[in-house]
Design a protein that fits this description.
This protein is of the alpha+beta class and 320 residues long. The protein is built from eleven helices and eleven strands. Pfam families: WYL (PF13280).
């Protein structure tokens, strides 16, 4: 559909929606520029085609008689109920979930947005319970003072400049910010090098200044940005075989085969070997089983599991 026709259809819909009374063809022709520019015959053809096009996409233009004594005086309207979306309704549980999500963000920029969302909920007559829920917080990190400025520049699509790793100044077109394994990164075009770069926020050594006008940064397609962020992902782990003693009824979620084992195993447990996508995955499976799996080998798998358990112990000690 040509842009000019699309604009004309939008104007026709708006004209028929904003009025509380039906409009005649003459009134519509006077209100819509495209109709005014053509002859009466061309206008009549165009109007009929536009009505048909709107009907095809689900918008019905009704014709109604304006005067019961003069049936040839016809007006047009679009019933609002046919095109308006129903108001968004939240259950109390959904509102509380939104309030919990808003509480998660405590940093300045995100807190501003989440506070605005709660105000809108209350304006709509929904009173979320902001005290319910979890105590978890998502934080940008104390080592990322540049977060707020970069976040705004990314949203505003403004070019920025900052010192990086030793003070060398970088001028960057920011495309997107991303959190990977507890660290924030900025992906964008390094203007001086004229190539895409990833910047870890904790390595930014100066204040961030905006050097370009809002809206001047053009970002590539999301797939291109994702390909740069994928460089932060660890390589795919190799498939490993792990031997375990498994309690009755435990499902491992991987293919297993029964095997022999010379050492002791809990009574009733079955010894099997299963293939996992790395020792971390095997350790996660064992930990989730809550003691109903005994990891027997190989030794490397036992070391990874021991490191995971020791990390949990350290967290408990630090919290106490």
């Amino acid at each position: 559909m040509a842009a000019q026709r699309s604009e004309r259809l939008v104007n026709l819909v708006i004209a028929l929606l904003v009025t509380d009374r039906p409009l005649t063809r003459a009134q519509l022709r006077d209100m819509i520029e495209d109709y005014r520019k053509v002859s009466e015959v061309a206008f009549q053809r165009s109007f009929e085609r536009d009505k048909e096009e709107l009907r095809r996409i689900g918008i019905t233009v009704e014709s109604v008689t304006l005067d019961t004594f003069f049936g040839d005086e016809v007006g047009y309207r679009i019933p609002r109920a046919d095109v308006e979306l129903p108001p968004v309704q939240f259950t109390q549980a959904e509102a509380d979930a939104l309030a919990t999500a808003a509480r998660v963000w405590r940093e300045s920029v995100l807190d501003e947005s989440s506070t605005s969302a709660l105000v809108k909920l209350r304006a709509a007559g929904v009173e979320p319970d902001t005290e319910a829920g979890i105590a978890t917080q998502v934080v940008t990190g104390a080592d990322a003072p540049s977060f707020s400025d970069l976040w705004r520049a990314t949203i505003d699509r403004s070019q920025v400049r900052f010192g990086y790793r030793g003070g060398k100044q970088r001028t960057v077109d920011p495309w997107r910010m991303a959190l990977r394994r507890g660290r924030w990164y900025l992906v964008g075009r390094d203007v001086d090098l004229d190539e895409p770069r990833l910047f870890r926020l904790s390595r930014i050594s100066s204040a961030v200044t905006t050097v370009g006008e809002p809206g001047t940064v053009t970002s590539p397609e999301p797939e291109v940005i994702a390909s740069h962020l994928n460089r932060l992902e660890p390589p795919e782990p190799e498939e490993v075989d792990v031997t375990m003693a498994v309690a009755p009824g435990v499902r491992l979620g991987v293919m297993t085969t029964r095997t022999g084992w010379d050492g002791p195993v809990p009574e009733g447990y079955e010894v099997v070997t299963g293939g996992f996508g790395g020792y971390d995955e095997a350790a996660t499976t064992v930990l989730r089983a809550g003691g109903r799996i005994v990891l027997l080998g190989p030794e490397k798998a036992r070391e990874v599991l021991a490191e995971r358990i020791q990390a949990v112990v350290r967290l408990e000690e630090d919290a106490s």
